[in-house]
């Protein structure tokens, strides 16, 4: 698995501070940004409670701007 390879060689690759946790958080956040439904991400990630998953996901400023821009009055 590529993620495990990167974790094992993170010092050689110059990935200071990288961990399996940071890769996991990034992957789940990217899925959310791509519009994958939270319920699907929940199944992939193995979280039992949606509330726990939502705390894990980073909300990007670009996402908030897109949400506001989608409003029609």
Q: What is the distance, rounded to the nearest whole angstrom, between the alpha carbons of the first and last residues?
A: 47 Å
Give, in order, the helices and strands.
HHHHHH
- Major beta sheet summary: none
In which range does the helix fraction lie? 55-70%
Sheet-strand content, in percent, reads: under 5%
Shape: flat
How many helices does DSSP assign?
6
Secondary structure elements and pairings:
Blueprint: H1 2-8, H2 10-13, H3 20-33, H4 38-45, H5 50-56, H6 61-69
Kindly describe this structure.
By secondary structure, the protein is mostly helical. The protein contains six helices and no strands.
Summed up, what is this model?
With 73 residues, the chain is mainly α. It is 67% helix and 0% strand. The mean pLDDT is 79.
What are the salient characteristics of this protein?
73 residues, single chain, 6 helices, flat, mainly alpha
